[in-house]
Amino acid sequence: MSTIRSRSDARRGFSLIELLVVIAIIAILVALLLVSVQKAREAGARAVCKNNLKQIGLALHLYHDAQGNFPSGNVAYAPGTSILMDDLMNWAVSVLPYLEQDNLYAMYDQNQYNSSNANKAVREMRVLVFECPADPLAGTLQNPESGPGAGVQYRHGSYRGVSGRSDGSGWFDQAAESTMPRQWLGILHSDGPPYNLGSERVTDVLDGTGNTLMVGERAHSTHSNRATFWAYTYGGYNSSAGVPESRIFLRDYDLCVQTPGVGGENPCKRGWSSFHSGDVVNFVFVDGSVRTLHVNINVNTFVAMTTVRGGETDVEY
To answer: Could you tell me the end-to-end alpha-carbon distance of the chain, in angstroms, rounded to an integer?
Structure first.
């Protein structure tokens, strides 16, 4: 005898267990999709960041071709004195014409201080090539914590020039404090009285253009008014250095300050970091190549790469 199924049996829906299984499968698929989207975003941000550095490196070389040397990292000068009073040009403003920013460059009054009202429009302008998409502060306006520009707003950026190395006692981003050995100079060091260090040329890079850092990333997760400001000339805001201690790679500024090391908090003001996954920082070298360095790099190797003529011609990393 055949079994006759009732209408209620024929219309039977999912059981609670079956429904929960379906929901769990959907949740897993959504999670996997979100991970894939996040990875795609991170990869995209890193690609844009590296392309920015490539453009910045090319602009620096175009400047060199036109002027016969690279720009000074910053120019600090007080008319009629040898005392650091205020700041003028810096490397980022200098290369604006070579980044298709001729109009913005024309707005910068080189006869006025960097922090003067005459240069307000320039220092507050967003220049996307100076911003890494992974940097949460990129493009925001803020007053820097210190220096002659502390009372006005500057636009955050993500990249700093390499001023050289330091032992924590002095810095090549401030002309009046550049008392360290000259072989510690970086490619984008300061200029101005009393030492008048001048500017560097490709032929000055005795350590090899493929071994020497030119511009790299610096982003903070804490203490945002100590992070990078692309147009701010004052030391430690658009230039960083090499110090032989690992804390200079911490993107948590406050943690860096709390970590013992030479020079107190000064190396933290001049560190290197990013918000890319994998604890890496991107740099453009003097030869124009863009490479990714891990924050666990040997600090002595890294410091050797920040100098122009430090005598390290065979750097391995």
So the answer is: 82
**Secondary structure of 121-182 in HEC code, one letter for each residue:** HHHCCCCHHHCCCCCCCCCCEECCCCCCCCCCCEEECCEEEEEEECCCCCCCCCHHHCCCCH
Beta-carbon contacts of 250 under 8 Å, excluding residues fewer than 6 positions away, are: 256, 259, 268, 271, 273
Tell me which residue has tokens 């924050």: 295
**Count: domains in the chain:** 1
Cα torsion angle, 251, 256, 258, 264, sign: negative
The predicted pLDDT at position 30 comes to: 79
Please report whether residue 315 resides in a domain.
no
Q: Return the bridge partners of 160, or none.
A: 216
Q: Is residue 161 part of a domain?
A: yes
Q: Which of 215, 212, 181 is nearest to 195 (CA)?
A: 181
Question: What is the token pair recorded at 278?
Answer: 């994998």
Examine residue 220 and state whether it is found in any structural domain, yes or no. Answer: yes
Quick: pLDDT tens for 242-259. 999 999 999 999 999 999
User: CA angle at residue 152 from 149 to 154, to 5 degrees?
Assistant: 85
- Per the listing, tokens 């750097």 go with 315
Q: Which domain holds residue 248?
A: 41-305
Domain-located, residue 34: no
Question: pTM to 2 decimals?
Answer: 0.86
Greatest pairwise CA separation for the chain in angstroms: 115
